[in-house]
UniProtKB/TrEMBL annotation:
Pfam families registered for this protein in UniProt: Arc1p_N_like (PF21972), tRNA_bind (PF01588)
Protein name in the entry: Nucleic acid-binding protein
MF annotations from Gene Ontology: tRNA binding
UniProt entry tagged with the keyword tRNA-binding: yes
SUPFAM superfamilies: GST C-terminal domain-like, Nucleic acid-binding proteins
GST C-terminal domain sequence ranges: 11-150
Biased composition (Low complexity): 175-193
UniProt key word tRNA-binding: yes
Domain of life: Eukaryota
Biased composition (Basic and acidic residues): 157-172, 208-227
InterPro entries (UniProt xref): Arc1-like_N (IPR053836), Glutathione-S-Trfase_C-like (IPR010987), Glutathione-S-Trfase_C_sf (IPR036282), NA-bd_OB-fold (IPR012340), tRNA-bd_dom (IPR002547), Tyrosine-tRNA_ligase_regulator (IPR051270)
Boundaries of every TRNA-binding domain copy: 243-349
Keyword annotations: RNA-binding, tRNA-binding
Length: 417
């Protein structure tokens, strides 16, 4: 039984869009086409687990088949697309990732370090895909897809300096009218000019009064900075490369959970995080993955320093950290569990000298995409322990409290988000 016959027999209910999957694969160049066909022959879920995902997979395979997306001259655009993504079409591994990986391979294998370092998101994505055991198993059956080793240790630091704010242009002053130049108009103009000048002085005095405390505080800060840093003010806490210790993780306890009245897929939870102000309201899109009975009274890991977000009319003040199966969210999503006997508010940190004693940011700046940059390294290990794997060095930093490691109930190799 060939691949296409098997596909037709086992997925009879696919939509018209997703039935074009084999047509999109047929347009891929050899040996990429064989790589995708071989992978999907072993795992038909790689075509997408629902109609929407199937359409995305087909769309990306068609893009790869056209060839432009993997041209080195278009890497800047592809790099931008991959910045927030772990996988190209969905939030789990699909045939589109096999296609993009296969098409990129002959281009990347010829690159020097400076070339692939200039496109860090493509390099990170490619290295992640080629290292997935299922991909590696299939790729190793073809001589064309050998492992590419990247010099990630010596990768240059990414410049994350924000762009300076644009200065507002002052409106042009209107030209004086002819009447203002006549002797009869001079007394009126002089009176108006005096009044304007007096108003400017009053506004300036008010402004100085308002700004004086801030100015004094800034001066004090500069003095402290000079004392501590030898003449330079201390840098802002979120400057430099994003690291996991910037994220504020704490033990939370669900004390109430209800379905969102205006969204079928959302829960509204009240989560005790050990704060004097009481529990936080948190909105989570878990209705279709975790039954409400399994949410009640659960202890979990909460991401506490994201910017509050409105979710269908309800403001959410944290995020629940979950593990998504490596085979896709339809294959399972689980709450990451803190160690037994944990208490609400217990600090959760990353193992390692660089992270264990670091203080997280009060709030993550959405513009700097700190969580999005760090998140692709979140994973569950072979023993289900939650960890962050440094993409540059490969070092493993387990996620823990003082009492033990945080774990997923059953999922191995899961992505955390």
């Amino acid at each position: 039984m060939n691949f296409l016959t098997r596909l037709h027999r086992f997925i009879p209910r696919l939509s018209r869009k997703s039935m074009s999957f084999e047509a999109s694969v047929s347009k891929l160049p050899l040996p990429v086409k064989d790589l995708v066909a071989s992978a999907t022959k072993e795992n038909l879920s790689l075509t997408g687990t629902n109609e929407k995902d199937q359409a995305e997979v087909v769309q990306w395979i068609e893009k790869v088949g056209q060839g432009d997306v993997v041209k080195q001259s278009n890497f800047k655009d592809l790099n931008s697309v991959l910045v927030p993504r772990t996988y190209i079409a969905t939030n789990y591994l699909t045939a589109a990732d096999y296609a993009l990986y296969g098409a990129l391979h002959p281009v990347i294998v010829k690159m020097q370090a400076a070339e692939y370092h200039s496109h860090p998101s493509i390099t990170r994505y490619f290295d992640h895909i080629q290292s997935i055991p299922a991909v590696r198993k299939t790729a190793d059956t073809f001589s064309s897809f050998s492992v590419i080793n990247f010099d990630l240790v010596n990768a240059p630091k990414v410049d994350r300096t924000p762009e300076p704010p644009k200065k507002k242009e002052k409106p042009a002053e209107p030209a004086p009218s002819d009447s203002a130049a006549t002797p009869a108009a001079e007394p009126a103009a002089a009176t108006k000019g005096a009044a304007d000048e007096e108003g400017k002085v009053q506004k300036k005095e008010k402004k100085e009064k308002k700004e004086k405390p801030a100015t004094d505080a800034a001066k004090d800060g500069k003095k402290e900075g000079k004392k501590a840093g030898g003449g330079k003010a201390a840098p802002a806490a979120d400057e430099g490369e994003p690291v996991p210790s910037m994220i504020d993780l704490r033990v939370g306890h669900i004390i109430d959970v209800q379905k969102h009245p205006d969204a079928d897929g959302l829960y509204i939870e009240q989560i005790d995080i050990g704060e004097e102000t009481g529990p936080r309201t948190v909105v989570s899109g878990l209705v279709h993955y975790i039954p409400i009975e399994q949410m009640r009274d659960k202890y979990l890991v909460a991401v506490c320093n994201l910017k509050p977000a409105n979710m269908r009319g309800v403001k959410s003040f944290a995020m629940v950290l979950c593990a998504s199966s490596k085979d896709g969210k339809e294959a399972g999503i689980e709450l990451i569990q803190p160690p037994p006997n944990s208490k609400p508010g217990d600090r959760i940190y990353f193992e390692g000298a660089d992270f264990e004693n670091a203080t997280p940011l009060a709030q993550l700046n959405p513009k700097k995409k700190i969580f999005e940059t760090v998140q692709p390294g979140f994973i569950t290990l072979e023993n289900r322990e939650a960890a962050w794997v440094n993409p540059a060095t490969g070092s493993v930093h387990k996620i823990r409290t003082k009492d033990g490691i945080c774990v997923a109930p059953t999922l191995v190799g899961a992505s955390l988000s």
